[in-house]
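step 4 of 6: structure.
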Amino acid sequence: MTYDFVEPVVFALLSIGLIAGGVAVVMLNRITAAALLMAFTFLCMAGMFVLLGAETIALFQVLIYVGAITVLILYGVMFTRFSDRPRALFFQRQTPLAAVFVAAVAIPVAIVALSFTSPTPRPGGGDLVPLATSVFTDFAFPFEIASVLLLAAMVGAIVLTKRDDPGESALRRRR
Amino acid sequence: MTVPLGAYVVVSTVLFFIGCAGVLVRRNAVVILMCVELMLNAANLALVAFSRKYGSIDERGSVFVIFVFVIAAAEVAVGLGIVLSAYRNRPVVNVDEIHQMKG
């Protein structure tokens, strides 16, 4: 007995999780629930990467997206007030026009997407060694540029959120 | 049987357009950031799928996913910084009410 049916079943479950999570992020009014469902969507995406055989990418996905970005977004939710008008653009007069436009974009995209076929099955094995080889040989310079970008983003975030309170700085000077 | 490449591309496309609709429809700046993350993730899925099914043995496509991770982390940090500093000036998070920078 073979287990050939496992991969399509897992793929279907993960796709349902991804699409349902994405729709919930867009539709839900409670922002905290939307953020947690976004984390669920990221977890489903990590499962997708495992299914594709890219375990290292799945590990980074869990670490960076589920760990760091979700927590950061939750802090952003906590620091801002709940907004009264969650959605716009729904039920407007342009709906038929928008439907025509969506069909004109979606049908060619779907045709092109379904026309891809897998040429040959790849040999098994992890992706850590080829990934690391590529990053540290051919892509070493973009890798360093990415680290500079992260440093710039960190400094920028600190500068943007730094509080310039004259009373507080006077208090600090007196201390 | 293995899952064909087209199925991954279809899921990636659907998720990308869900995120795109969220960016256009929602008005909360934090939710818009979340929807941008969804779009980046959908692009990651397409990159990894093509890299694993089509690509050469050295995983060129997956390298770009690493860089997308870096860009996404930087974008969320700076984006939330902008949202929080705008929110401190005037406590609104609706993007159509934030128009101090309009020329």
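step 5 of 6: annotate
 - The mean pLDDT of chain B is 84.
 - Chain B touches chain A through 73 residues (CB under 8 Å).
step 6 of 6: archive
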